[in-house]
Amino acid sequence: MSQDGNSTISESTPVLSDLALHNASFVLRGIEVGSATVIGASILALLVFISHEQKRAKAPFRNALNPFNISLILMGVSLTGLQIATVFHYLLVEQPTADVDMLLAVYVLQECFTYSSQYCYMVYSWNRGAAVIRHVFPQGAVFFLGLVVATPFIFIASTAIDAYDLFMILSDQNTSDVFSVVWFIMAFVPGAMVIVYDITILVTFIKFTVSTKFQGEVDTRFMIVSRFGIVATIFTMATFSVYVLLSATVQEVFVSRVLVAVLTTLLNCCYFTLVAMKVALFLEGEKKKKSRKEMLDRVLGPDSFPLKRSDVNPLKHYSSPGNETV
């Protein structure tokens, strides 16, 4: 995803001498640094929470290395890297003579961090919502899984094409007509894949949420995943809309920088929504454990807990002729 990348030429012009633009850029850089600090702190808090979660479950820490936690942590790391790279990009283009190789490297980092954060979101939402998707669209689940698997290859191809295009621009060289067509297509394919996935997830979660009103008791974990999934998907769809605006206003330095700040903010909101989903699922699990304990206390007395599962089996000591004790 291009983030102000093609505007590097225009940003090196004297327009940056304008005091208002300079002050606004300083504020926007501060927002990016502040956001990176908040996300970095949240990653540390998430690691502490995961450790607490494993202790409560009395599970070995290696169980914490699951797709849910890994994708969520990597998403936070990617967003932190994205915002730091964006600040470096702004500082570089404001120099009188910016190093072309450094500009290119920072731009590639921006795209890599952007795509990796989006892909981590896709992996996390798929792992959390796969059961709901299979319930609502049993025949289409394989297709959506294929979309998740194919997406990183499209992201890598798009990043390579954008990097080559920027290199040619910074080197004052022209690209071929064929390459221009390929660049134009690949500029929208990754976003189109993500938006298709987002719409699918959004429709799935809304349909599941509505259908539960006409059914009996439904696992509250599915409801939590659906409700938080709807919010996270809205943020990512808004991100795509901002990206389209960013592509259309890339030559407007101040506007493009504001849109980049909005884009990273939306991605941050998506990340925090997924973290909130994880916390809500943990609290729901604790609530169910407490409810089961209270039920056993009422039936067996408060001094009988904890017991082995077999100790509360009503058929344990029952035997009939010709049968072994259950």
Q: Mean pLDDT, as a whole number?
A: 78
Distance between the termini: 62 Å
- Poorly predicted regions: 1-17, 307-326
Largest sheet: none
State the oligomer.
single chain
H and E string:
HHHHHHHH
Q: How large a portion of the residues is in β-strands, by DSSP E?
A: under 5%
Backbone shape: globular
Strands, count? 0
Structural class designation: mainly alpha
Main attributes?
single chain; 326 residues; mainly alpha; 8 helices; 0% strand; globular
List the helices and strands and how they pair.
Elements: H1 8-11, H2 19-57, H3 67-93, H4 100-136, H5 141-170, H6 177-211, H7 220-248, H8 253-300
Description:
With 326 residues, this protein is an all-alpha fold. The protein has helices at 8-11, 19-57, 67-93, 100-136, 141-170, 177-211, 220-248, 253-300. It starts with 7 loop residues before the first helix and ends in a 26-residue tail after the last helix.
Summary of the model, kept short:
This protein is mostly helical. Helices cover 76% and strands 0% of the residues.
